[in-house]
Amino acid sequence: MMQRGGEIRGEVVKDVRRNTLLPILHRNIDFGAQMYTDSLHSYHTLGQFYRAHEIVNHAFEYVRGNAHVNNVECFWAVLKRGLTGTYVCPSPEHLERYLDEHIFRFNSRKDLDAVRFKKAAALVEGKRIMYKDLIFGLRPGRKIKNEA
Length: 148
Known about the structure:
This protein is mainly α. Helix content is 40%, strand content 7%. It contains five helices and two strands, in the order H-E-E-H-H-H-H. The protein has helices at residues 18-28, 70-86, 95-107, 113-124, 131-136; strands at 34-38, 52-56. Helix 2 crosses helix 3. The protein starts with 17 loop residues before the first helix and ends in a 12-residue tail after the last helix.
């Protein structure tokens, strides 16, 4: 999810079905928002919940006036290149962390390096993750014990 000219938000989901995606969208997006999505069938009922909803079907068009999803697709393209090119074979257990890293980097892309470093340092202050917890402590549905 991305606000035009604003930040991106995202989370790892088990599937892209409507019942999975709608609660996440409702938690993160104001109901008065104008929505622009691609033609994924799971999004087709969004007009019932938001001020307006426009769909861009990439089989026929990529932009129609103000209706496009180019910004968020740019983010996903960079994320995919990072996962396949930099990390090569990321572990599914750590996928949320890879995603968080890319979201942080994208949302702070206009910051100077010193500002970005201070933001990152503030986010990890007081959060200690032991190697054994990182490697052996993750099981499906289990969180790292030292994580806030």
